[in-house]
Design a protein that fits this description.
The complex is a heterodimer. By secondary structure, chain A is an alpha+beta fold. Chain A has one domain: Sufe protein. Chain: A. Chain A has helices spanning 9-16, 69-82, 87-91, 95-101, 110-130, 137-156, 158-172, and strands at residues 29-34, 41-50, 56-66. In chain A, a hairpin with a 6-residue loop joins strand 1 and strand 2. In chain A, helix 1 (9-16) packs across helix 2 (69-82) and helix 2 (69-82) packs across helix 5. Chain A starts with 8 loop residues before the first helix and ends with a helix. The relative contact order of chain A is 0.17. Chain B is globular and about 65 Å long. Helices cover 40% and strands 13% of the residues of chain B. The mean pLDDT of chain B is 96. By secondary structure, chain B is α/β, with parallel strands linked by helices. The two termini of chain B are 31 Å apart. The chains are: A alpha+beta, B alpha/beta. Chain A binds chain B through residues 15-16, 18, 21-23, 32, 37-43, 64-72, 108, 156-157, 159-160, 163-164, 167, 171, and chain B through 301-303, 305-306, 309, 313, 322-325, 327, 329, 341-343, 346, 378-382, 384-386.
């Protein structure tokens, strides 16, 4: 199959059949990010396990995304890239890795790959925080930047976020 | 895979009768309508015959219609043509906030040339407020341009009353009827219209042919200067075959417009009624004052480009006003103007039907659409409740 309009074959494959879609119960880390450019929102859940040689491995990863074809495809791809990787390896996955693995993205959709790598970073950051691990400087810096951008989107999506909180509070009872 | 075309507001297939009418004008009657020999005379006759048919469908006098290359060109000609011919009279122009870009962009360009433009808001249905229109009209207002039937949400304005207000104040009134012409009755005299944009490809004619009605006696500045075609208002060798096609469109639609509309309204209303059974789905536009072929929705918690592409995977062609599908990453200005929030406009979907849409097509869409919405909601973090 050739590319389909503006999207590559690989993008369409992941859009048609996204992998690791959904939510992990009791995740070890959650990354919730929104993109300031077009308002896509992505939640990424990770499960971390101690592997061989004492390395910590992302044993499971799932996503939920509100967004376009590219946003869904990048979400799906980041889960594929991150699953089974050590934390260190996962932190080294860049937006360009995501875009490349998808056979490229239209220029205007490149920010969707940022969304995906940000979500992974945030999920790992959440894992570090929850487990009171010392956070590497680089991770702290990236987290701060993402937090700033996410706030912008939260303002735009506050109705949904409020609704979601209500649902969670009901479930918690 | 079954293919269902639900994007007639983007463009339509050419009616086979139109295609047949056009054919001889490629190889047999290929003359230049400006030539005085027999080849030219045949082309000229074909041009004038088409002009009569097109003007007839809007109840204009024959010489009040000129042909252009597109509706965009007609809109540009109307706005810039009136502005520059009347700049001594005034520099103020009024357009609605839900105009097509073909009107909005010339308006913005005219602002750069020293004209002032007021963008008239609309209500939740996309209707302009006539009282508000009267309020924003000034002594130096030279032109009001209001879209006849909106290309996105399908809302049809009260053109006759808008025209009356403008006529009484001595202001020119232009309406972009790209989506309305050939689909609903238009009477430029009764509706007090001074300039009307029409085109062929939205009503089963060829692409690349537009028309502009200019009421007799109104002076406009041309955009194209050259050989003086179309009464000096649009120089360019006449696109005879295309214009013949447009004439044929007008001839056919004069006979079939009402029955087409009746059939489409039935299908459209079925589509709307049953789509709204999907949880958290919403109709955009007016429930009754809408183009016979237009249905427009927004679905909570999902995004329109994904929705459109999922439908495409099932062979259904549709359209969305989502930011993600636009080159600018800005949601549709029309949807924002009717009060939708960004995330609501994100989840928008236009389904537009036409002459060749059948009940089984609608049934197929109604079978696929709820599933596709459900699928995307499963992916979305904003779905209602966690399953």
């Amino acid at each position: 199959m050739k590319s389909y309009g503006q999207y590559s074959k690989e993008v369409m494959k992941h859009f048609k059949k996204p992998i690791n879609m959904g939510r992990i119960k009791n995740p070890d880390g959650i990354g919730k990010v929104g993109n300031v450019v077009c308002g896509d929102v992505m939640y990424l859940y990770i499960k971390v396990k101690k592997g061989k040689k004492g390395k910590y491995i992302i044993s499971d990863v799932k996503f939920e995304t509100f967004g376009c074809v590219a946003a869904i495809a990048t979400s799906s791809m980041i889960t594929k890239l991150a699953k089974g990787k050590t934390i260190e390896e996962a932190l080294n996955i860049t937006k360009m890795d995501v875009a490349k693995a998808l056979g490229g993205l239209p220029k205007i959709k490149l920010h969707c790959s940022v969304l995906a790598s940000d979500a992974l970073t945030e999920a790992i950051y959440d894992y570090f925080t929850k487990n009171k691990l010392s956070i590497p400087d680089e991770l702290e810096k990236r987290h701060k930047q993402i937090e700033k951008e996410t706030k912008f989107v939260e303002e735009k999506f506050k109705d949904y976020i409020k609704m979601e909180k209500e649902i969670w509070s009901v479930k918690g009872k | 895979m079954k293919k269902v075309y639900m994007d007639y507001s983007a463009t339509t297939p050419v009616d086979s009768r139109v295609l047949e009418a056009m054919k001889p004008y490629f190889r047999k009657y290929y003359g230049n309508s400006m030539s005085l020999h027999s080849f030219g005379v045949i082309a000229k006759e074909a041009l004038e015959d088409a002009r009569e048919k097109v003007s007839n469908l809007m109840k204009a006098n024959t010489k009040e219609v000129i042909f252009t290359g597109s509706a965009t060109e007609s809109d540009n000609l109307a706005l810039k043509g009136i502005a520059f011919a009347n700049k001594e009279k005034g520099k103020h122009i009024i357009v609605s906030m839900i105009e097509h870009h073909a009107v909005l962009e010339p308006a913005k360009w005219l602002e750069k040339q020293g004209f002032e433009v007021t963008y008239l808001p609309v209500d939740q249905y996309g209707l302009i407020d006539l009282k508000k229109l009267e309020d924003v009209i000034r002594k130096d207002t030279i032109l009001v341009s209001i879209i006849f039937g909106n290309n996105e949400i399908g809302t049809i304005q009260d053109i006759e009353r808008i025209g009356k207000i403008c006529r009484e104040k001595g202001i020119y009134f232009h309406s972009d009827a790209t989506q309305a012409f050939g689909k609903i009755p238009i009477d430029v005299k009764k509706m007090n219209i001074d300039l009307l944009t029409v085109n062929a490809h939205k009503v089963y004619g060829p692409k690349g042919v537009g028309g502009l009605y200019i009421r007799e006696g109104i002076e406009i500045e041309p955009l194209l200067h050259g050989g003086g075609h179309e009464f000096g208002l649009r120089s360019s060798t006449i696109n005879v075959s295309g214009i013949v096609g447009f004439g044929k469109v007008a001839e056919i639609q004069k006979k079939e417009m009402v029955s087409d509309a009746k059939k489409q309204i039935k299908l459209r209303d079925k589509l709307i009624k049953e789509t709204l059974r999907i949880e958290d789905s919403h109709l955009n536009g007016h429930p009754t004052k809408r183009l016979p072929n237009n249905a427009h929705f927004w679905f909570s918690y999902i995004e329109g480009e994904s929705l459109m592409m999922q439908l495409d995977m099932h062979g259904i062609a549709s359209s969305t006003g989502s930011a993600c599908s636009s080159g600018s990453l800005e949601p549709s200005h029309v949807l924002l103007a009717i009060g939708l929030k960004h995330e609501q406009a994100h989840g928008s979907l236009r389904l537009s039907i036409g002459k060749y849409t059948e009940r089984e097509d609608i049934n197929y869409v109604l079978e696929v659409l709820p599933k596709v919405v459900e699928n995307l909601r499963k992916i979305s973090p904003f779905k209602r409740g966690w399953k």
